[in-house]
């Protein structure tokens, strides 16, 4: 295939070649417009869910004796040995749907997942499931308006997760479903503002045995609630300070997955001995938060100190007066480990005097729910101000809708749901977070597409020539 032959062939078709000039600015404007319309459509779907949820809660009166059979996502379609449906496991029609990668779903109803460590018929759960049932109509309406929508859901501050379309959830090999919606990035980002957190862990001699085990699990659960917008560090203390990661002495790090897992590995190395000197730990924590805030590298928003201990012999008011009063910019959250309450009053005072929260954790089973309380406190300013900010998470990998090409990149749009009851508005009660997932490939559809500049017959000819040339190599 000579060069002269190629030139001759090109001239033969030259009259059919057209060059189109594309205005780059107009291309970008069109892309921006397409993206804006798509973002608006997804945000409006979520906003409709927020309005429906807040209205439903406003009309609901809590009933501690409420009996309500709901569709539990783990128990649906399950039968006992006699062939009868289990309680909360009624028949729930599931049909494979190609829009959801042929997963069996129910596009008429949502169902509810409750974390394994929670009681399915707890009055708080049953009441929440009951009033949130009204979201079914909005789920279906949203899907009718925008058929490109996939999962829509409401994550309750009480722990249950209402998902549309309804789907069957399967426990792992140990019969456990570890999923808790309140630990998900979309929930954390929508419910709270970015935060800088210093975790203080008492490793004095009195913390030996089960208490230290509970303390480590408490720290791990706190890490679960931190997202990429947050910064943290962990200090263990007795008569001396021990940074869990010595290489990160005196600073905070981003709470991404890698850093959190790294710190978890170091938690196992902690052991209890000596005397607990909380004063030096508090001084270190306040100084670190103050210095890090001045660097401009942190969240530039909320700041908190998490204190995990089996007691405090003093209120340390002089330290708080020096660093935190009168503005109280740093919230203090205190976690009393163990069943004894001899020093509970001092820890309660510290939390209340610094706009925080006190809780007691007696067993490993208590950890999850008690840790979650601090999120409600940090969400109060947003709730009181009724800030319904729309949050878009960073892209993440989702395996639920994995297709032939592998795992799917996903982002989530979410908004917080608040109580609008007049008697509770000043307390700032977060009801939960609603959201919907958006595949990244859906975003890419907004990019304008242009046809090839060559006529079809030239494209075919070029393809044949290139293929023939490659076959001779």
Describe the structure in your own words.
Pfam families: VWA_3, VWA_N. Belongs to the calcium channel subunit alpha-2/delta family. Residues 196-378 form the VWFA domain. It comes from Phasianus colchicus. InterPro entries: Ca_channel_alpha-2/delta, VWA_N, VWF_A, vWFA_dom_sf. The chain is globular. Strand 8 and strand 9 (241-243) form a beta hairpin. The termini are close together. Mean pLDDT is 88; it is low at 453-473. The strands form 3 sheets. Strands 3, 4, 5, 14, 15, 16 and 17 form a 7-stranded antiparallel β-sheet that branches. Strands 7, 8, 9, 10, 11, 12 and 13 form a 7-stranded mixed β-sheet that branches. With 473 residues, the protein is of the alpha+beta class. The protein folds into 2 domains: 24-146 and 154-179 and 400-413 and 437-472, no CATH class; 189-383, Rossmann fold, CATH 3.40.50.410. The chain contains 14 helices and 17 strands.
The rounded distance between the terminal residues' Cα atoms is 12 Å
Radius of gyration: 28 Å
Task: Name the helicity range.
Answer: 25-40%
The percentage of residues in β strands lies in 15-25%
User: Could you say which structural class the secondary elements and strand pairing correspond to?
Assistant: alpha+beta
Helical element count?
14
Structurally, how many domains make up the residues?
Answer: 2
Q: For the residues shown, what is the average pLDDT? A: 88
What is the β-strand count?
17
* Largest β sheet strand count, sense and barrel closure: 7 strands, antiparallel
Which stretches are poorly predicted, pLDDT < 50 over at least 5 residues?
A: 453-473
From the spread of the alpha carbons, the general shape counts as globular
Domain VWFA: 196-378
Membrane topology: Single-pass type I membrane protein
Subcellular location: Membrane
Main location: membrane
């Amino acid at each position: 295939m000579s060069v002269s032959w190629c030139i001759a062939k090109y001239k033969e078709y030259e009259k059919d070649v057209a060059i189109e000039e594309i205005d780059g600015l107009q291309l970008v404007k069109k892309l921006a417009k397409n993206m804006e319309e798509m973002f608006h459509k997804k945000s409006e779907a979520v906003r409709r869910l927020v309005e429906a949820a807040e209205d439903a809660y406003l009309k609901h009166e809590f009933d501690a004796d409420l009996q309500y059979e709901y569709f539990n996502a783990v128990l649906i379609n399950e039968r006992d040995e006699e062939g009868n449906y289990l309680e909360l496991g009624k028949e729930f029609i599931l049909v494979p749907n190609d829009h959801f990668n042929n997963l069996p779903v129910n596009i008429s109803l949502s169902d509810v997942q409750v974390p394994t460590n929670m009681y399915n018929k707890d009055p708080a759960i049953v009441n929440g499931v009951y009033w949130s049932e009204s979201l079914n109509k909005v789920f279906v309406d949203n899907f009718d308006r925008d058929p490109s929508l996939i999962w829509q859901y409401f994550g309750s501050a009480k722990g249950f997760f209402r998902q549309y379309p309804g789907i069957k959830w399967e426990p792992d090999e140990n019969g456990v479903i570890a999923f808790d919606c309140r630990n998900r990035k979309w929930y954390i980002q929508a419910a709270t503002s970015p935060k800088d957190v210093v975790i203080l862990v008492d490793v004095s001699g009195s913390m030996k045995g089960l208490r230290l085990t509970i303390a480590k699990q408490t720290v791990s659960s706190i890490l679960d609630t931190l997202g990429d917008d947050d910064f943290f560090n962990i200090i263990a203390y007795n008569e001396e300070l021990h940074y869990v990661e010595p290489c990160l002495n005196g600073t905070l790090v981003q709470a991404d997955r890698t850093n959190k897992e790294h710190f978890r590995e170091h938690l196992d190395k902690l052991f209890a001995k000596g005397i607990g000197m909380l004063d030096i730990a508090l001084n270190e924590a306040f100084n670190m938060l103050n210095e890090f805030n001045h660097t401009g590298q942190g969240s530039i928003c909320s700041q908190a100190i998490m204190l995990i201990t089996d007691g405090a012999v003093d209120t340390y008011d002089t330290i708080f007066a020096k660093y935190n009063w009168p503005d109280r910019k740093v919230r203090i959250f205190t976690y009393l480990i163990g069943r004894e309450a001899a020093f509970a009053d001092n820890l309660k005072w510290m939390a209340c005097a610094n706009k925080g929260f006190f809780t007691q954790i007696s067993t490993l089973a208590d950890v999850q729910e008690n840790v979650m309380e601090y999120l409600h406190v940090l969400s109060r300013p947003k709730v009181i101000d009724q800030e319904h900010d729309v949050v878009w998470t960073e892209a993440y990998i989702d395996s639920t809708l994995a297709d032939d090409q592998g795992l799917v990149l996903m982002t989530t749009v979410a908004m917080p749901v608040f109580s609008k009851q007049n008697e509770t508005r000043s307390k700032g009660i977060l009801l939960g977070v609603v959201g919907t997932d958006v595949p990244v490939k859906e975003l890419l559809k907004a990019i304008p597409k242009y046809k090839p500049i060559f006529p079809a017959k030239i494209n075919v000819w070029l393809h044949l020539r290139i293929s023939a040339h490659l076959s001779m190599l």
